[in-house]
Amino acid sequence: MTDNRAATIADKHEIETLQRLYAKATDKLGQKTPQLRAEGRQIYHRIFAADAKIRTANTPGDLTADGPDGWAAVAENALKNYTGTQHLIGTQLAEVHGDQGTLESYLNAWHKNPDGSVYYFLGTYLSKVRREGDGWKIYDMTLRLDTSGVVQTT
Predict the structure, then answer these.
(1) What are φ and ψ of residue 138, in 5° steps?
(2) Per-residue pLDDT of the chain (154 residues; tens, 9 = 90+)
(3) Cβ(55)–Cβ(64) under 8 Å?
(4) Cα(42)–Cα(122) distance, rounded to whole angstroms?
């Protein structure tokens, strides 16, 4: 394997890890303890560029925010009424072009309602990334809703 190919593979791995860390951070932001929410915000600062533009698409009342703290506030507000969440990242497709790249990641998110039902959100993250001094960062991300619904549990 050439050094260039090995570097591209390493870059793609680092880029894909950003979205996995995002899922972990978002679940922490959905927790009710200040410590876990602080851990989620810390991860957001690790994965998002300071000037990141973040938004939703195809959702009722599409949401937008600037930077890690702006999006953390959006996520905390969106998750505040659930008693639990789990964000699962599925298929990921990363492309690298020098110090820029793109990442498409499938999302399967589950949110438990106080009545015991579960709201599910299936979507796709469409992200633009760039290499910064401390590694790859997401500088533009759209969370597109593909489908959603409520499952009644017994």
Answers:
(1) -80, 125
(2) 567 999 999 999 999 999 999 999 999 999 989 999 999 999 999 999 999 999 999 988 889 999 999 999 999 999 999 999 999 999 999 999 999 999 999 999 999 999 999 999 999 999 999 999 989 999 999 999 999 999 988 6
(3) yes
(4) 25
Closest to 102 (Cα-Cα) out of 135, 140, 57, 65: 140
Domains of the chain as residue ranges with CATH: 3-151 (3.10.450.50)
Tokens of residue 108, six digits: 């399967």
- CB atoms near residue 31 (< 10 Å): 16
pTM metric for this prediction: 0.93
Q: Supply 129's token pair.
A: 């990334």
Element holding 93 (H helix, E strand)? strand 84-97
- Is residue 20 within 8 A of residue 91, CB to CB? The reply is no
